[in-house]
Write a structure and sequence with these properties.
68% of the residues lie in helices and 4% in strands. It is mostly helical.
Length: 178
């Protein structure tokens, strides 16, 4: 997947989420299915995830190479990254449940701030993608908490799918309870 294709995919997945959020009453921000994250927690999680990636991409390339090494395998395509992510989610359900409990519930007054933060982090990532070389996208690796070391290109493709994954959860599980 080229840089332009990844940027378009990120934009498409985030626009889909923002449209869904726009069409939901603001008072639903603090609601969600029983024992699941609220809408606010979903958005907070996505914004935090993007911010962590943007922070990692702000480090000098030599530091990333020194700290995490270089890729020593074939680069995975989008479909493979998605398949591996869902497999890891399935294998680590209990670990995910523990992680999910730690996320604090944002209140309604934080709604606009968090949505704005998500939009800004998405645009920052798109900007960073344009500036990084294809060589660095495919050789530098950074760790993902569930998937292990991934190339920067792979983790950015995962980020697009991660947004789609959470949007899909919101659309299917939250439309029935809200």
């Amino acid at each position: 997947m080229t840089k332009a294709e990844i940027i378009n995919l990120l934009e498409e997945k985030h626009l889909d989420l923002f449209k869904w959020l726009e069409n939901k009453p603001k008072e639903n921000w603090e609601k969600g299915p029983k024992d699941k994250w609220t809408i606010g927690q979903q958005v907070k999680h996505l914004a935090a995830s993007l911010q962590l990636l943007n922070n990692a991409l702000s480090y000098p390339r030599f530091f990333l190479k020194y700290k995490f090494g270089l890729c020593n395998r074939e680069i995975r395509n989008y479909e493979t990254v998605v398949k591996n992510y869902h497999q890891k989610l399935e294998e680590n359900k209990e670990r995910a449940k523990l992680f999910n409990r730690k996320l604090k519930k944002p209140i309604l007054k934080d709604r606009e701030i968090l949505i704005n933060k998500l939009q800004i982090q998405n645009k920052k990532l798109q900007y960073k993608i344009r500036k990084i070389s294809d060589l660095n996208l495919d050789t530098l690796v950074i760790p993902h908490p569930l998937m292990g070391k991934m190339t920067i290109r792979e983790i950015i493709m995962w980020t697009a799918h991660h947004t789609e994954h959470h949007t899909s959860i919101l659309k299917t599980k939250y439309n029935n309870v809200l």
